[in-house]
Fold Membrane protein-like.
Amino acid sequence: MSDGTIVENKSSEKTAKLIYILYLVGIVLGITGIIGVIMAYVYRGDAPVWLRSHYDFQIRTFWIGALYIFVGGLLSAFLIGYLLLLFWLVWLAVRCAKGLKALEEQQAPPNAASWIF
């Protein structure tokens, strides 16, 4: 019975890793970020606590990032929006890198509730 749980957890870890990758690919393609957040919502319920924190982190990353993009898009008429969009790009890359590192160490992501990094 524990072997099935280990396989299921490994599968969930791979899914969480795939979501981080989808977010990074979403910088170029856009739609993959939406696919990633849907997957995070679907897989969050069955995951162990430490892995659930990754799914929560990914969901927060998506929605906070969507807010940054929205505000940056509005402010781009005043040129400051482009700086906000550049910040979003760096912010997303750093959050995904930190999440992937914590996932490899099988730990919860650091500062999961933070709006920054």
Remarks:
- The helical segments are 2-29, 31-44, 49-75, 80-104.
- The chain has four helices and no strands.
- The chain has a mean pLDDT of 89.
